[in-house]
Amino acid sequence: MNPPCARCGKIVYPTEKVSCLDKNWHKGCFHCEVCKMTLNMKNYKGYDKKPYCNAHYPKTSFTIVADTPENLRLRQQSELQSQVKYKKDFEESKGRGFSMVSDTPEMQRLRRTQEQISNAKYHEDFERARGRGFTPGLDDPSMERYQRANQMMGERVYRALYDYAAQDHDEVSFRDGDVIINAQPIDEGWMYGTVQRTGKSGMLPANYVECCN
């Protein structure tokens, strides 16, 4: 029994039969699905059991399954995770204050100055405890700056304008409205003082406080 044509459905006789893609075709019915160009066994390309010419052969890509329910769910989950991470990073950056620029050359210089002054303060307290007193070396620029600040300012009182969380071991935390006593300017943008509420002393940003004197 002669089979039907996969294209037109009519009987295909042996003299005009083309067997390809697990189907039988009339020679005239075996043409490209797009441009209708007649094909043969040498120039056809099969896709999904249908014949195509080389120019109209479908290009396979991963976008075919991009909108499946599973991929949509994964995409939504990824977007949610990105939003959560962005919010977390934003909240952390709010709490870090000036730490976002702590690695600039200027901030590195200020940090070194702070460490030198902290070391000097530690040695001064240590020597005083031993009863010998302490005199910083005159050749140390940071020590001269520290001495000039002490001589010019004496004891001054400041009030905190904002909350501040210490970013380093030699800094001090305080809250909005806290009273800062014995405040002394150390370098541009930084001071040394004692938070009256906690009794803790250390470095603090000068633009976070205002003078009460």
From TrEMBL:
Coiled coil residues, start to end: none
Gene3D superfamilies, sorted: Cysteine Rich Protein (2.10.110.10), SH3 Domains (2.30.30.40)
Domain of life: Eukaryota
Keywords per UniProt: LIM domain, Metal-binding, Repeat, SH3 domain, Zinc
SMART domains per UniProt: LIM, NEBU, SH3
Cross-referenced Pfam families: LIM, Nebulin, SH3_9
All residue ranges annotated as the SH3 domain in the record: 153-213
Record-level GO cellular component terms: cytoplasm; focal adhesion
Domain LIM zinc-binding as annotated: residue spans: 3-63
The keyword Metal-binding is assigned to this record: yes
Listed GO MF terms: actin filament binding; metal ion binding
Matching InterPro entries: LIM-SH3_domain_protein, Nebulin_repeat, SH3-like_dom_sf, SH3_domain, Znf_LIM
Protein known as: Nebulette
Organism: Amphilophus citrinellus
